[in-house]
Design a protein that fits this description.
This protein is mainly beta. The protein contains two helices and 13 strands. It has one domain: Sandwich (Jelly Rolls). It is 11% helix and 30% strand. Bound molecules: 2-oxoglutaric acid and fe (ii) ion. It holds the Pfam family 2OG-FeII_Oxy.
């Protein structure tokens, strides 16, 4: 592994993991729609890792920091798009980057996708991976549990768009992924 550890390094993180997925539908975007209209606006995923299954309709665009422009990431049959999120960026002391991306459906037809967000064991404490810093003083971020981080992110995001939200961790059955329920009441976007 590129971090210099063996395949068991993430075992504790992967125990009783918290994961969720969304079923997304992007109606075709009208040709005369506003140039800033997006299916999903520019953002970075805030969890650890996302496996994204796209249907057969393109629309995903990824920001290239060097070129300062978006490039398309079209669907490849049988393949997932693998995306690191903000929490992995933090875990790796910014050695690995959480990319900015957005979706604009210019295809004229309906687009579907399934992002699967994997955030690991909610009780696991994310603290700088040792091979990502030379001395403890180089650590940029304070340790934080997966649960605290994800919960805070949900609060930030949904409060910002003016939607009341309640997030609660529910009991889970041994061997099954934990579920983080986010209840969203009516509100304005
Ligand atoms: O629908 C897509 O292709 C991307 C969705 C996405 O970026 C997200 O849900 O975070
Ligand atoms: Fe995303």
């Amino acid at each position: 592994m590129s971090l210099g550890y063996d395949q068991h390094y993430f075992d504790e993180f992967c125990t009783d993991p918290m994961a969720f997925y969304k079923l997304l539908h992007y109606p075709p975007q009208a040709e005369d729609s506003h140039p800033l209209q997006r299916g999903i606006g520019a953002h970075r995923d805030f969890g650890v890792i996302t496996l994204l299954l796209q249907g057969d309709v393109p629309g995903l665009e990824v920001w290239d920091e060097e070129a300062q422009e978006y490039y398309p990431a079209p669907p490849v049959e049988g393949a997932y798009v693998v995306n690191l999120g903000n929490l992995f960026e933090r875990w790796s002391n910014d050695v690995y980057i959480s990319n900015v991306h957005c979706v604009i459906n210019r295809s004229g037809t309906h687009r579907y996708s399934i992002p699967f967000n994997y955030n690991g064991n909610p009780d696991f404490v994310i603290r700088c991976i040792e091979s990502c810093r030379s001395k403890p003083e180089d650590e940029k971020y304070a340790p934080i549990s997966v649960d605290d981080y994800v919960r805070q992110k949900y609060k930030d995001v949904y409060n910002r768009v003016g939607i009341y939200q309640v997030a609660e961790r529910v009991a889970w059955l041994p061997g099954l992924p934990c579920v983080l329920y986010v209840r969203i009441t009516a509100g304005k976007y």
